[in-house]
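Researcher: Predict the fold of Alpha/beta fold hydrolase.
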Amino acid sequence: MGEHVRAGDLDIWTEQVGEGPDVLLIGGLGDTVESWQFQLDGLADRYRMTAFDNRGAGRTAMPEGPASAAVMADDAAAVLRALDVPSAHVAGFSMGSAIAQELAVRHPELVRSLVLNSTYARPDALFRSQLDFWRWLPEAAPSGRAFFEAFFTWVYTPRAHADGSVAGIVEEALNFAHGQSTGAFQAQVDVCREHDTTDRLPQIAAPTLVLAGEFDVILPPRFGHAVADAIPGARFEVLPGEAHQPFQEIPDKWNARVDAFWQEVEARN
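Model: Structure tokens for Alpha/beta fold hydrolase follow.
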């Protein structure tokens, strides 16, 4: 069971399970703790796993005023400090990877290692146009179902659409008791649009693994490759046949890969 953790001036919904070295999971646009369920279930026998709802998602409010990846990184740092976690292996996905980058730059003492999945340093012209489209999509969609069905065409593989996985995810989203408001969704889209760590990535000293889906149409591998090139010593790997959210579509393989990376980092210290 999760609980609200007081982090600065914000109550952030947090779930922590398992025992072992600490891991912090940072979700993407609109994602909540539940998006990491395969990791919370699959890795808690080896790690103490912490996930939370970013500001503006799930059970965490979106305060007045502008949001940014830097502000949300400070939220993540406040969660770790509120839970007395001295440092953690940090895994961030999409918008969460932008937050994780900022966390590593702004609070390096809290970051033991970084896994950046479906990541980018700043949006190019095409990605900015996609984000602009997403921003007005919830206002234009004729129903919540139509919004999710349209949005998820960008997110999951043809395989997941064909085997019914996406249909199930749509139903879960529609039935979720803490759905995201249009305003909060748009605020998070703006966070994604304004993210830019291009000139600061070389400051990251934590061991870093960058993962990209071969067929990710939102953030193709070229984005992750550029991030890995900019972070000293970072590794870059492409997941064959995968799209934007492999941690949900192939959780066993994804968990095994990040576990091997974390074990390697642990062995060095």
